[in-house]
Amino acid sequence: MTSAPRLPTNRDDVRLDELAAHRSGQQLTRLQVVISVTLAITIVAGAWLVGGRIGIAELGSGGVARQYLPKAGEEAPTLGMLGEGGQTVFLSQFRGEPVWINFWGSWCPPCQAEFPEIETAYRALAPQGVTLLAISAKESWQTSSDFAVASGGTFPIYNIPDLTIFGETWDTRNFPTHLYVDAEGIVRYVSTKPSDAAELIARGEWLLAGDWTAVAAVGPSPISVAIRPEDLRV
């Protein structure tokens, strides 16, 4: 089977006329249209993805996985995902909200162990205004949703059957991975290891506070040596 097409990594700021509005009422961009179509195609290939692409090296620790992710201080690249019913949802639709992204999979033992911690943190952070995008990968939306329901999850489940459709932009090599994106769409923190509820809540509240110099509360991002954008932009 051929690999999924690589997508350009430019921001989704080139808009198309005459296209139907998506969920948030914004127009779909050219890049978003490509992503939507590619996500639909990957659903068909889901069984192959689960059977042939899950590797033991992708579980539970960071390592070289960090080089493939957006860094703290950078603008979050375009990210599309499948929601309930196969609806395509984009990270850009949540602009104006602090967002906690969790890449996980029901096939991943560290993710399974972390799931109750995420639920606890979600219940604490959602009323404060933090949006959780729990994005499963390398499996179908239904598989991950079934696991979440059976495990007592109450947060929405999203899915990207094959992360490689984004090229190296979101080529997550480790599960679980957590990214924290501020209301302006800037990545503020990245973690490539499992976390307990206290750590997850501390990071979420730090994201809400918006003080990027207050690293002590959450620890330095494993993907960078500092949090401040002026220190991290290259």
TrEMBL record:
GO molecular function: antioxidant activity; oxidoreductase activity
Protein name as annotated: Thioredoxin domain-containing protein
Matches recorded under PROSITE patterns: THIOREDOXIN_2
Entry-linked CDD domains: TlpA_like_family
Gene3D superfamilies assigned: Glutaredoxin
TM helices/strands, residue ranges: 31-51
Residue stretches making up the Thioredoxin domain: 70-209
Family annotation (InterPro entries): Redoxin, Thioredoxin-like_sf, Thioredoxin_domain, Thioredoxin_ResA/DsbE_sf
SUPFAM superfamilies: Thioredoxin-like (SSF52833)
Keywords: Membrane, Transmembrane, Transmembrane helix
Keyword Magnesium annotated: no
